[in-house]
Structures are given as structure tokens and as C-alpha cells.
Amino acid sequence: MTTATLENTSAGSADAAIQSFTVTFLIRRYDPEVDSEPRWQDFDVEMYATDRVLDALHKIKWEQDGSLTFRRSCAHGICGSDAMRINGRNRLACKTLIKDLDISKPIYVEAIKGLPLEKDLVVDMEPFFASYREVQPFLQARTTPEPGKERIQDVASRARFDDTTKCILCAACTSSCPVFWTDGQYFGPAAIVNAHRFIFDSRDDEAKVRLDILNDKEGVWRCRTTFNCTDACPRGIEVTKAIAEVKQAIMRGKP
Amino acid sequence: MTVIESPRTPARPAPRRGVNVEKWGWIYMRASGVILLVLIFGHLFANLMVGEGVKAIDFGFVAGKWASPFWQWWDVLMLWLALIHGANGMRTLINDYTNPGTVQKVLKLALVASVAVLLVLGTLVVFTFDPCPAGSPADLLPSFCPAA
């Protein structure tokens, strides 16, 4: 019986042939027990083009400075833990490849803005989740389905809100929004996206309640359509479009 | 024992009933923007392209325009729509760049005051403009006045 195996010799030479680069990372460090202000610290890391920024952070933490603090869970772009500002743009560290960055210059990595900084790349997400909770992001149906049956929905009705179901609550959009930066009172794109997901769901009956919540002084009207959120979303959700649809639904008074 | 709040407990007070300033401000910006597009390009066309074009603009040209109620209303409408449109934009800038407090209040008051003064002054000028005021010395009047 023959099984396909990697030949040691060829694998070894292939490894050697892959070119690696020394990449400089400038990371905005902040230790609340020592620093009064955040400071920039640089690290040189040996990287391959196919490595991600998250791999660089791991290498730094494991091999150079164990005190570097950041969040990550799945490391595959679905848990939404490692949103950070990479070269001034909100990105997931686990989805940003070295080959897509200009490594002739240092790569700047800092925590997302607009939320209280706790340590290094970790921010307090509570204000973000507070506005998420406020839009009642759960199904509220007044009818009960037939016993043993699911709630039926046709393909077109499901497609109506498909885009906004993709949100992973990483806060990349909300913390890229200049209106959110000002005083943090604005609901923020992520909360509106998650309201949109239920407002336009044909199985949900409380769209009016959510539209009333978002028809607030700090609601959708503060959106200035700068498209930072759409650019920041690692899931490719058309966030600004979703906000515009909620605005129109409020004007109509129904989804 | 910790009490877990109901997920439907509102975290901020329910929005006040009645007129929603932010919503109407948003609608106003779009509505006035569309009308201003027509008014401003109409204004530019009438002043710069028609007849002798830009060379014709002088005191007499403006006086001639404001002799007609049509251009009076055109200009007053443009003044009100554009000034309030701009002021609403400035209001959002103040909201963006200052924190709630005394400074923000003072800036907003100054904005409202300057807009009110400009609106009253502008409207007054357009409707009461008289190129040949009675009793003026002849050498100060434009050539088309009967007294000059």
C-alpha cells in the first residue's frame, strides 16, 4: 500500500527557497501601572510574505517581549477579537497578510480608537456592547410557529438582510467612525447593522421598537456617510448602505 | 445574589416624544440641497452667461435685478436656504469638535445669533433696496437715476 508522503529532502530545500523578510513593527504600548501616556515601541520580526500581522504579534510575544498584550481567540477571522489599527486602518490582525503591506516602511499597530484603552492593544469593549444590547438584537415574534415546525421564510425575505447577518462584532466599524470618536454617545455602525438584521427580518415583529430606538438624537441621523465603516469591515458588510436603509425605514415608519 | 437585568431594560432614557430635531435637520439638508442646486446654478447662469456675461455685473446690474420681484424672491430664497443649510452643517461640526458644556453652548449661541443677523439684514436689503434714494447728492448717485 502506498501513501503519498512528503519527501524530506525536497521539503527541506523548498523551505530554504522561500524568502523571508525583516519587518519592523511600531506598536503603541501602554501599561497603566507604569506609563502615564502610551508610547511607541519598535520590534524587528523575521516574516514570510504569507504570514499575518497576528503571527508577528505572536512572535513578538513569544520570542521578544512577553508583556505585549492583545486579544485573539480563533485567529481565523471569525471571533472578532483582534480588530486593531494597522497602518491607520482598522483591520483584523488575523486577516492582514504581510504581502499586502508596504514592508519597506515600519508597520504601525495600535489599539482601535474611541474606546477606553486598557493595556497595549486591548480596549474596554463595554460601551460598544452596551449600544449593541440597546437595539434589542434578538428575535421578537408575536406569533408562535405551529408545534414541531420552524418559522417559514422565503428566499427573497432571507436575502433582504443577508448582508448584516455576517457581523462578528469586532468593533472595527464603530471604532473607525469619526462621529463615534467625538463623545462615544452615537450608537455606532455595528449596533445599527445588528438592528438592521432584525428590522428587515420578516419573522420579527418588533421592527417599530428598534426604529424608534434608532430615531434618537444619537441614532442614525448622526451618520455622516463617511464610509469609514464600510472600508473597515473585515466581513465586507456594506455598513453605510445598511445605515441608509434604516434611515429610509424610519422615514417610511416601517421596514 | 446578583440580579441579572432583563435584556430589554433600556440603557438610556427613552427618546422624547415630539419633534426630532436631528431627523428634520437631516431631511432639511437633503431637501434644501436639491433646491439650492437649481437656485445657485440658475443664479450663476443669469449673472455670468446671459447677455454680456460677467462684464455686465456692476451696481446697476444688481439694482436692475432687484427691481424685479422674481429675482428678489429668488435671492431671498437662496439666502435663507443656503444660510440655514450652512449653519446646520456648522452645528454638526460644533457637536463633533467640542464636548457638551459651556463652550459648546456659547459656540451654538454665536452661530444662531450670526445667522439671525445675516438673515434679517439680507432680507431687508433685498426687499428695501433703492438705487436712487431721494435727497442724496447728485454726485453720489449712479448715472441711471433721474436726479443724477
Automatic annotation (TrEMBL), chain A:
Reaction equations catalysed: a menaquinone + succinate = a menaquinol + fumarate
Broad class of enzyme this protein falls into: oxidoreductase
E.C. number(s) listed in UniProt: 1.3.5.1
MF-aspect GO terms: succinate dehydrogenase (quinone) activity
Cofactor(s) named in the record: [4Fe-4S] cluster; [2Fe-2S] cluster; [3Fe-4S] cluster
Domain 2Fe-2S ferredoxin-type: 21-115
Domain 4Fe-4S ferredoxin-type: 157-179
Protein's name according to its UniProt entry: Fumarate reductase iron-sulfur subunit
